[in-house]
Design a protein that fits this description.
Layout: E1 28-33, E2 41-43, E3 52-54, E4 70-72, E5 85-90, E6 99-111, E7 121-128, E8 137-140, E9 148-149, E10 160-161, E11 170-175, E12 185-192, E13 201-213, E14 225-228, E15 231-233, E16 237-238, E17 244-247, E18 250-254, E19 258-259, E20 264-267, E21 275-279
Parallel strand pairs: 14-17, 15-18, 16-19, 17-20, 18-21
Antiparallel strand pairs: 1-13, 2-5, 3-4, 4-13, 5-12, 6-11, 6-13, 7-8, 7-12, 9-10
Length: 286
Amino acid sequence: MSKIIFLSFIAAIMIIAAILISSYISAIVIFQDNFTTSGGFINSTPNRARWEFGNVTQTGAGGCYSGSGCWKTNLTGNYLEANLNASIILNVPVNLSLYLTANISFWHYRKFEDINAQYDCGVLDINATNVTKSGIWTRISPIGGYTGKCVGTSGLLNQLSYGLQGDGWEFAVFNITNYTNNDFIKTRFFFQTDTYGVDRGWSVDNFKIEGEPLPCTYVSGMGNWDIDCNCNLTRNTNLLGNNITINGTGTMLITGNITNWKKVNIFGKNVTNKCIIRCTKGGCFR
């Protein structure tokens, strides 16, 4: 068998040399924030008592889902009642252009004004920054749907949204595969109330974006293979004695066998931005 040669730039490269034998998972984490710090989210109205980051100390508000940090519409008490119009925005652009599918997931705790009618409401929006959708916030819906239609606020009136009161901390998943053609996306949690009645509010924790990388395919006769790190190799691939060079940041999942290669070169960008090669389900370099 040919010897694997690892090259590096001046910055260090992270290479997974050991073979990771595990059950096959097609999705990888693209972005994750467990809110040990405020992370990539910012309060869109920082000078007013809207969303706050930290440890929830209000009695009966569920605390934080994990650890001592999360976002809540008021950490120490009920949310403001008078036409509250507030959001936290993921201010770190996330590149989805290299993924076939993608999901957003998070844990949230909601205890809004009423148990029968959605006078106060919360939604998740997405901003896709390609040419046709740049700068526009678009409403997205969770798998299984929102709790109903908003009846008490002007901005979200008659729109599907979260409302009412949940049963403790709940897990939510949003399919955003329709946005995987975008170079970057941002998201926001948008909360709006009417002018009367308050309760504990809305808390968010453990935010994650996952995706299935685009398939990487070698065409017989194309010579040396130069590919991006973010791809998913599911087929047995014969390199016919050519080199394979893997560049970029992310994870390459290999479930098929790569055979008859001469050299394997793996390039990350630096110590933080790594290229990880994960061999699963019996596939790898042979």
